[in-house]
């Protein structure tokens, strides 16, 4: 059954009748990124107004692949379990050349993680769950549908916005303006910021079909299947994914000079789908024709205007690095902005959002543009190399690894960046937490649930943790006067090594490691992660 | 034909990208010439005639004719 779009109610905003007090944070855009941003801030006690020019969730499934790291972040935001329950869990990818499988990969070959490598879930469900969650904070999150931002101006220490509603326009003032207004960001255009990069000439047809039977053959297979030169779509590439509700995603590469409007017409799409699924009955749910771009802004921080998600960077979809990259932006910015708004950290801490996520975005662009290049050879020589790599891949392991149909999203490492204290450990400072099962007095839990959200010092094995203000402490496989847990099946001890102490940031990245943590060293690393040294150098 | 040990991982994407980039802007004839030079240079770097003979045989075994 097609998704039932329920319009959210428009309520005349107070600013139409009388000026509103200056807000701390205004978020422009109520897509997955804007909503996640508002929830993250609300969980830290920060109020925000969320403006959206529309009043329904995403039309079409759009982003569907949500990575393990994104699910861990969504767990912290209170929607992870609901997404996992509804989504299709997968971890196996298969690559075919013609009709033959040449390579398969397992994205999470080990046990002991709360979340799987990936789930597939239509963007409209993600947005619906996030709206539901945001509404659990009525005093902190003010979502205003059919409120279109048509102008904004940065006044140095605040930003003013002009907002259009069905009842006329009004103005708002905010200390911080967060642009979550997507790939076509009107905020970015108003500011005249250059947004240029690689645009791929090839077009891709993206179709979601609903069918009772499975297009994967005889069985429903929750896997990612990718074809180079498939028998049903000669000379091009194709991708197949399973979503909930018997919906399947099909991506088909088209000719460079294909007419996008013509290709998207139902009478032209249906024969292409029939070539794949044969006589099995199906219903077309959503169709779109895309050209892909790989672009990022030079800077994500422009004084009081902050760019988050697709407004800051866009990538081709092979690798699931768009939505997942945006959620990592939110995770990185949320705790920093909250601290700055609360006066607990210098404004320079916001600049490290630019440093860290600009780096993450560049890594995503590098990987996704390489994948797209591999899929779309530009010259006869490129086609020759790719063809021979495919031929060798039949027997030669090295050539299999060369086949690039998307290097799937992994969290980026922030090693060596400003907020981290250098050190050596199995999980080096800058890397993100690796989950592990734990058991404690209140039953079974996960490392991610004990660590994410606030600064947390974790001792693995026989190591005593000092009491430092503003830092939670937990011990694993030890006894102490702070909460202690047992490492179920010893996963945590193997993954982190012992005896060792790790200081995690609120976004789960390691910011310092210690053999024997002293109060002074831990406090110093904590202060550094909150920007103390940034202030000193500016 | 031998199955060769994978010695390129995890750098295969960096290598492939560098290889394709080296061909940028070349005509097809010039690209084939570049490939020939690459093979000769790589052969010299490998040096071991037995290994080279094995690679030649393996590569040839994939040709249709």
Characterization of this structure:
- The complex is a heterodimer of chains A (538) and B (65).
- Chain A is α+β, with helices and mostly antiparallel strands.
- Chain A has 15 helices and 26 strands.
- In chain A, strands 1, 2, 8, 9, 10, 11, 17 and 18 form an eight-stranded mixed β-sheet that branches.
- The longest helix of chain A has 28 residues.
- The radius of gyration of chain A is 24 Å and the shape is globular.
- The N and C termini of chain A lie far apart (57 Å).
- Helix content of chain B is 66%, strand content 0%.
- The model of chain B has no long low-confidence stretch (mean pLDDT 95).
- At the A-B interface, helix 9, helix 10 and helix 11 of A face helix 1 and helix 2 of B.
Structural class of chain A: alpha+beta
Report the CATH superfamily of one domain in chain A. Answer: FAD/NAD(P)-binding domain
Number of helices of chain A: 15
Number of helices of chain B: 3
Using only C-alpha atoms, the radius of gyration of chain A works out to 24 Å
Task: Name the descriptors.
heterodimer, A: 538 residues, alpha+beta, FAD/NAD(P)-binding domain, Glutaredoxin, 8-stranded mixed β-sheet, 26 strands, 27% strand, B: 65 residues, mainly alpha, 3 helices, 66% helix
Write the layout of secondary structure elements.
The complex is a heterodimer of chains A (538) and B (65).
Chain A: E1 23-28, H1 32-43, E2 48-51, E3 65-67, H2 68-77, H3 80-86, E4 88-90, E5 92-97, E6 100-106, E7 118-120, H4 123-134, E8 141-144, E9 148-154, E10 159-165, E11 168-179, H5 186-190, E12 198-210, E13 224-228, E14 237-243, E15 247-253, H6 260-263, H7 266-277, E16 283-296, E17 301-302, E18 305-307, E19 313-314, H8 323-341, H9 348-375, H10 380-393, H11 397-402, E20 437-440, E21 443-446, H12 447-451, E22 456-460, E23 472-476, E24 484-487, H13 491-496, E25 500-504, E26 510-514, H14 519-529, H15 532-537
Parallel strand pairs in A: 1-2, 1-11, 2-8, 5-13, 11-18, 22-23, 23-24
Antiparallel strand pairs in A: 3-7, 4-7, 5-6, 9-10, 10-11, 12-15, 12-16, 13-14, 14-15, 16-19, 17-18, 20-21, 20-24, 22-25, 25-26
Helix pairs in contact in A: 1-4, 1-8, 2-3, 8-9
Chain B: H1 12-22, H2 28-46, H3 49-61
């Amino acid at each position: 059954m097609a998704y039932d779009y329920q319009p959210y109610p428009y309520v005349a905003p107070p600013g139409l009748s009388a000026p509103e007090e200056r807000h701390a944070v205004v978020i422009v855009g109520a897509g997955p990124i804007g909503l996640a941003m508002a929830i993250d801030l609300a969980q830290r006690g920060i109020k925000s107004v969320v403006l959206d020019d529309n009043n329904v969730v995403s039309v079409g499934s759009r982003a569907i692949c949500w990575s393990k790291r994104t699910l861990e972040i969504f767990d912290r935001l209170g929607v992870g379990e609901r997404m996992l329950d509804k989504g299709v869990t997968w971890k196996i990818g298969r690559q075919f050349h013609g009709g033959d499988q040449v390579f398969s990969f397992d994205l999470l070959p080990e046990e002991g993680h709360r979340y799987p490598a990936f789930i597939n879930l239509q963007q409209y469900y993600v947005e619906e769950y996030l709206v539901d969650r945001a509404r659990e904070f009525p005093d902190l999150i003010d979502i205003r549908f059919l409120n279109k931002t048509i102008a904004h101006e940065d006044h140095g220490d605040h930003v003013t916005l002009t907002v259009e509603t069905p009842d006329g326009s009004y103005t708002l003032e905010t200390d911080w303006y967060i642009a979550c207004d997507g790939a076509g960001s009107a905020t970015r255009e108003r500011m005249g910021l250059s947004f240029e990069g690689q645009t791929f000439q090839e077009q891709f047809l993206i179709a979601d079909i609903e069918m009772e039977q499975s297009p994967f053959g005889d069985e429903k297979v929750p896997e990612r299947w990718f074809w180079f030169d498939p028998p049903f779509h000669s000379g091009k590439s194709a991708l197949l994914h399973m979503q909930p509700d018997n919906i399947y995603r099909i991506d088909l590469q088209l000719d460079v000079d294909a007419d996008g409007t013509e290709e998207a017409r139902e009478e032209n799409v249906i024969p292409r789908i029939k070539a794949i699924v044969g006589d099995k009955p199906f219903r077309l749910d959503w169709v779109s024709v895309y050209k892909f771009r790989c672009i990022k802004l030079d800077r994500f921080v422009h004084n009081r205007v902050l760019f988050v998600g697709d407004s800051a960077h866009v990538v081709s979809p092979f690798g699931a690095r768009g939505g997942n990259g945006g959620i990592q932006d939110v995770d990185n910015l949320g705790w920093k902005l909250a601290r700055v708004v609360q006066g607990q950290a210098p404004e320079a801490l916001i600049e490290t959002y630019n440093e860290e996520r600009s780096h993450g975005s560049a890594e995503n662009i590098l990987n996704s543009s390489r994948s797209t290049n591999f899929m779309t050879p530009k010259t006869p020589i490129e086609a020759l190399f790719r063809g021979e790599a495919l031929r060798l891949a039949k027997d030669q392991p090295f050539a299999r690894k060369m086949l690039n149909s998307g290097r799937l999203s992994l969290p980026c490492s922030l090693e060596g960046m400003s907020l981290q204290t250098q050190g050596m450990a199995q999980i080096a400072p800058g890397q993100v937490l690796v989950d592990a099962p734990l058991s404690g007095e209140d039953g079974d839990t996960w490392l991610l649930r004990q660590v994410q959200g606030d600064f947390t010092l974790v001792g693995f094995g026989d190591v005593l943790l000092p009491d430092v203000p503003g830092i939670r402490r937990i011990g694993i496989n030890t006894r102490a006067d702070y909460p202690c847990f047992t490492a179920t099946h010893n996963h945590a001890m193997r993954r982190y090594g012992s005896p060792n102490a790790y200081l995690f940031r609120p976004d789960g990245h390691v910011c310092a490691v210690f053999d024997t943590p002293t109060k002074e060293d831990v406090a110093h690393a904590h202060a550094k992660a909150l920007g103390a040294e940034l202030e000193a150098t500016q | 034909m031998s199955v060769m040990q994978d010695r390129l991982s995890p750098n295969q994407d960096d290598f492939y990208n560098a290889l394709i980039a080296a061909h940028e802007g070349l005509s097809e004839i010039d690209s084939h010439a570049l490939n020939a030079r690459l093979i000769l240079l790589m052969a010299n770097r490998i040096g071991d005639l037995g290994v080279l003979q094995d690679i030649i045989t393996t590569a040839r075994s994939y040709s249709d004719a």
